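User: Look at the shape:
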Amino acid sequence: QRQKKIATKDVDQPFDPVWKMSEKNPTPNDSNGASSRIATSAMSWMAGLMFIQFATRMVHFILNLIIVRFMTPEEMGISALQLPFVTTIVSRILKEALHRMAIRERDDSSIILVWISIPIGIVTSLALAIMYYSTSANFVDKPWLIYGLGLWMVASWMEMALEPILISLERHLIVNATVFIEILALVAHAATVITLLLTINSYALIQSYGHFFYTLSLFLGYYYFAFVHRPEIGRSIWPSSFKVSHQATTSVRPFIIQSIGKWVTAEGEHAILFLFASETQQGIFEFVHNLGSIVARISFSSIERTAMAMFADAKSDRAQCRKIWTMLMRISLLISLLYIALCPAYITFLIHLVYGSKWSSTDAPNLVAFYGLYLLLMGINGLVESLRDAVAPDALLKSQVPWTMAMIGLYFSTGAILMHYFGAAGLITASMISTLIRCVFNQMYFKDHLFTVQEALPPMEVLIVYSALGITAMASRIILGDTWKHFGFGVLQGVVFVLWGGLRYGRLMRNFYSQYRNKKIN
């Protein structure tokens, strides 16, 4: 009984949420305690969410690595780009908009809109799927495609039906159940993929089955938790009536517009590929995008989150912001330049080793190497926008929205033109041009609040070392070819580089973060 009492005490209480705690008027003696509880709960939720995202990305990356080895570029284009694009375009826009509104407004009207969006999403996704089925010729010679389309469509419906529960858990910062259910879903996904790899030959369909069973596991797990384990949560997410106020319908419009803009920014490449590229071109680009962007998803996203928090803490101290800017921008540049220096020399051997000749014999190795220039601009622009969002006035941020929409339109037009003439390389070039324009625009539009990239350029010694790495790596490839000896030389390069980097920057990084912590404490 004592253990049960302790366990019950430690369980998150959904009806004493953190966002309501902040609205209370604590006594002077309790104010610090309330603030501490808010911070602790928020940090626990954020840490759990970050763990889930990292684990999910890595597991999906490893499983896709196994599947893609057995797929052709054409099958990759259909299963990894066309099916997700057709079935999730509407659900992702609605989910993003209504989720943000529900977290911000925290009233019953927002939850009602979330429930109403589910049948809207089902009808529209079904209509898009029927349109895709009637216009695509692939269904004749690829019978597995109809099953894949159905699996992706039903999975998108389940994702929309999960939103009310996910919003409730996020409102109350309940993370334990989320971590446990997500881990079970990852196990189900991995078990499905491994089992199907051993039993069926339609490898393109394995991705659809894996995604379906992953979503099904999430659906069953969250609904079991909400209606069986914690039935009070299940009762709370079902509204007493579905009458929507005029204010709620008015408030949701900006969120939908912002969600559309965010979707265009994140998925614009897939839209251009879907409309203008062949299945083989789609597959090659998706392959390149998955490999190249793993650096951005793991490294740059962490740097940008860190930058946003540090800039927000130090925004009143411009000298401190300048130090943070210089350090984080230099780290981002070093990661990108290392990719640019070594990737062209070793990527062909690595793709052949991991994915086989069907991928190494295409343009994919050259495109993955070319993707490094895009990563360089992506890292720079990410930090520019982090500093902008942290320190720029709200009025100035709102005034630049029309310019942002204009840049999105420019990206679509240049992407379509360059894709037509240069294929996947043209689309990467369009993304580079768009990112460069956004970066230059931010530097000019927010010039009184930002710093220049020139302030954070690495010293000449570092540029010489990186140039030597790239030249010696390419010379090794020319002399030894794409062989194990060449790869062994690359391992030796890596060891020497890590030793040099540790001696050159290890103490500098420790001193910087020590000074930053002392600055916050003082």
